[in-house]
From TrEMBL:
CDD domains documented for this protein: pepsin_A_like_plant
Cellular component terms (Gene Ontology): extracellular region
Domain Peptidase A1 intervals: 109-448
Similarity comment text for this entry: Belongs to the peptidase A1 family.
Gene Ontology biological process: proteolysis
PROSITE patterns for the chain: PEPTIDASE_A1
Protein name as it appears in the record: Peptidase A1 domain-containing protein
Keywords: Aspartyl protease, Glycoprotein, Hydrolase, Protease, Signal
Keyword Lipid biosynthesis appears in the UniProt entry: no
InterPro entries: Pepsin-like_plant (IPR034161), PEPTIDASE_A1 (IPR033121), Peptidase_aspartic_dom_sf (IPR021109), Plant_Aspart_Prot_A1 (IPR051708), TAXi_C (IPR032799), TAXi_N (IPR032861)
Length: 457
């Protein structure tokens, strides 16, 4: 079947979108905080991102097959979707809203950094669905297993607890102070996982993509000492959400990430850039924040240079807050609401049925799956193009639109949102080979198709 779609290869390759689960949390943030001073931070730092299936990851399983990883990816993505939907459904004044879920389902990419002086190495999950940066600290009432040393603030010369008198320790209905008058925090996740402790400030040192280091002083973070139900191996979470407590806003409200091939978990050029030096280039689309999630205005979907007959209302958030299109770094595959998914699926079937053998994949109910090889049998297959407000277009090539399940099978990597859900999610797989840049101050997201290696310092 090689070259089966060569005639349709005249399609223009268009730019691709979307994006980043771990902290599908909706947490009790009993302390609202921001940076504590006007200390100047670096205008840019870039750090390598580690894929969860990489040999450098604590989740790495050398015995896992391609099918094992694919099914695990789908299960995590569905769990993440459920959390996103629950978080999106919270009323804007609900004081329990804060994040997603604390288990490993959102841990798609992680980054190395060090905290304190002397520096203590840590491994954190990157999550655009969370806000607070937190790490596990000693002494802890309940500790979870982690691969890095647990940070002990009493041994750092640069740690400072945040006093309750600080304007950054906002008054809340619950008890926010410890006996020493230090500011406390508590996150309760959708899965009932809880992390709690003290808010403090500390110096963070990041490994850069060129094997150098970048130091950021006075970062506000949660020192988690009472942790119940957390199953992760990383030390905590770097929240890149829209709140003023997130590291993204601490660094100047701009950040970008570039993800190479998901097929290769050891791809060495995945990177995150924070600060004014983030690469803000490409085509842009308006960014909307609702219940601390990032929403985009998806207007239509095209295939073979033809816009599909999908009611655009399917992609919009309703007045009650349901539905809409979220871009998320913790969800691997993408999801479409019923009215959009079946239209796309049927158009794909018209191109493949009768040419490739359709198969049922037990681990992927309702998915469209075929026997074959993505790279060989889908040569020339047209991009699935996501058309966003403002003219931004993101093209899903065959490696972004389909997922390898091993044993000579592959399935569509755009899945059906579960019954009862009208949420659309652009997952990280759809963002492959793109530099995705967020300008929070300007409320814009930029997409630029690029070889991530070209962005290395």
């Amino acid at each position: 079947m090689a070259g089966l779609f060569a005639k349709s290869a005249s399609l223009s390759l268009i730019n691709l979108v979307i994006f980043l689960y771990l902290s599908c949390l909706t947490a009790n943030l009993t302390a609202s905080t921001t940076t504590t001073s006007a200390v100047k931070t670096p205008s840019r730092f870039a750090t390598k991102l580690i894929h969860r299936d990489s040999a450098l990851s604590p989740y790495y399983n050398p015995n896992a097959t391609i099918k094992d990883r694919a099914i695990s990816t789908l299960k995590r993505s569905r769990a993440r979707l459920a959390c996103l939907g629950a978080k999106a459904g919270f009323s804007s004044d609900d004081d329990t809203r804060a994040g997603l879920v604390a288990e490993d389902s959102g841990a798609q990419f992680m980054a190395n950094f060090s905290i304190g002086e002397p520096p203590v190495p840590q491994l954190l999950t990157i999550d655009t669905g969370s806000n607070l940066l937190w790490v596990q600290c000693l002494p802890c009432t309940k500790c979870f297993e982690q691969t890095s040393p647990i940070f002990d603030p009493s041994k750092s010369s640069t740690y400072n607890p945040l006093p309750c008198s600080s304007p950054y320790c906002t008054i809340s209905p619950s008890d926010k102070c410890d006996p020493s008058n230090n500011c406390k925090f508590s996150h309760t996740y959708f899965d009932s996982t809880k992390v709690a402790g003290l808010i403090g400030t500390e110096i963070f040192t990041f490994e850069t993509s060129d094997e150098g280091i970048s130091t950021v002083p006075n970062v506000v973070f949660g020192c988690a000492q009472d942790n119940d139900g957390y199953n992760g191996q990383p030390s905590g979470i770097i929240g890149l959400g829209p709140s003023n407590i997130s590291l993204a806003n601490h660094m100047g409200s701009k950040f970008s990430y570039c993800i190479g091939s998901i097929r290769d978990p050891n791809y060495p050029h995945n990177q995150l850039v924070l600060g004014d030096g983030a690469k803000i280039e490409g085509t842009s689309t308006p960014l909307e924040v609702y219940n601390e999630l990032y929403y985009l205005t998806l207007e239509s979907i095209s295939l073979a240079e033809r816009r599909l007959e999908i009611n655009p209302e399917i992609f919009k958030r309703t007045e009650s807050g349901s539905g809409g299109t979220v871009i998320d770094s913790g969800t691997t595959v993408s999801f479409l609401a019923t009215g959009a998914y079946y239209v796309l699926r049927d158009e794909v079937r018209k191109l493949l049925d009768g040419r490739l053998e359709k198969v049922e994949e037990p681990g992927v109910p309702s998915a469209l799956c075929y026997k074959g090889n993505i790279r060989e049998d889908l040569t020339g297959f047209p991009d699935v193009v996501l058309n966003f407000a403002g003219g931004a277009e993101v093209g899903l090539d065959v490696e972004s639109a389909f997922q390898d399940y091993g044993e000579g099978e592959f399935c569509m990597a755009v899945q059906l949102s579960p019954e009862g859900s009208d949420l659309n999610v652009v997952g990280i797989m759809a963002q492959q080979h793109y530099n995705v840049a967020y300008d929070l101050a300007a409320s814009q997201v930029y997409f630029q198709r690029i070889d991530c290696q070209l962005l290395d310092d």
